[in-house]
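seq as requested:
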Amino acid sequence: MEILDRAATLFGTAPLLRMADGTLTFSDCNRIAGAIANRLVRMGINSGDVVAIASPNSPEMALLLLALLKAGIIAAPLNFRFPASLLNATVARLQPRLCITNVATSLLAESITIDELLDGISLNTAFHAASDALSNSDLPALHFAAKAEMMRQPVTIIHTSASSGEAKAAVHSFANHWYSALGSNENLPFGAGDCWLLSLPLYHIGGYSLLFRALLSGGALAIAEPHEPLDQSLRTFPLTHLSLVPTQLYRLLADRESTEHLQNLKAVLLGGSAAPKSLLDEAIRQRIPLYLSYGSTEMSSQIATTPSPIIARQAHSGKLLLYREMMVAADGELLVKGNCLFQGYLREGRVEPQTDDDGWFHTSDIGSIADDGSLTVVGRKDNMFIAGGENIHPEEIETALLLLDGIVEALVVPVDDAEYGARPVAFLKTDEAGTPDDAALDLKMKSLVGTLKSPTCYYRVEKWATLPGLQKIDRRFYKKLAREGVFLGSAITLLPPDA
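struct tokens:
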């Protein structure tokens, strides 16, 4: 039995997809996905083929991904916010059998739209009750030959966020997503009666992984209208679970009504970057059920998560989840493996495994594991620079900056220095313009991290330059900005190029 049939059998009339204007049950989604899968097969798309999709989150996008899963077709959801040239270059490397877009993002050459694919397939549940033609019994044999083979089959190609270089095409098997969901659900329960907002894009591992979590456990996913603010979604849907990055949490806590909604949730999963001291303190004060998490595309989403909501500020990112393994190399790099580890990167039509001789994947993250199993991530190897012969991790300095009152977000990058080789400079977002001032910052930072690690300059930003389609700061942009020295002084307000 394939996973959608299993979910429909177990959870039947329970909601799987919630929209502002209606609900689709597990049985509804199974029938609709079956109809879409049938159509794809009749178009000549077969199990093992790759289908690329460029679309924002929508019920149709989710149903298409479920249909590809049902048919054994490999889904390659793409960042639709990429420029057309980059999107088409990515597709050229993937060489998919079919490209699908939505009307608003028809940037791909030789693609069809989701509306064209779904033409005549209604999402109205009454339609299915009267239509035997769409029943699973009429579908061609869209099944896996055996459980072991099913587990090995590639299911998705999801690109990394490109935070350090070109985005890589990570290939995941059914087993990767299955065990990722099992371990995540074991730590942070999500099941019948629950509703998780699909706030991350489905082309992101954190968004796609929620499909498997719901199919395994019977929880529902809420899909908001495009561009709907988070505070509106909190009012629209009966949410119990929410995934956020620090910037989103900061904005929600600034609103009394949104804070009350957060207090009534079962879990708020916080990841993406280090959170300011003031943000964690406020979340704890407001009794927000906050879980901290560390994950990666290569490990199919979460790697470590706190086992319960935090009740005191902490530096670590929780404990290793089930079906994952981790060790710390001699140089401090975190190495991972286990059932969740991806199959490799797709390059020139071939999947290239990325493990060492002992089966470990090198994350390029630097960290430590305490005696109680708690994981602390210090920073990225590729962000590290050398100043005066000492290894400097920008993330350590950023964490210290976030301890200071008034600083909401911080980014540290190196600049060349004739005496030390390199020195840090900081870009800051503060809760009030110009505060704290540079003199106060310099004094406090020298007491926290010492003179060598204290930034030589502080620059304020109003809006970050972020990676396309993500709320992740584009570190390379600020490295280039700092290296070129295009500043008139520390008091200048810097904006990203698209502001």
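Residues 250 and 447 are 27 Å apart (CA to CA).
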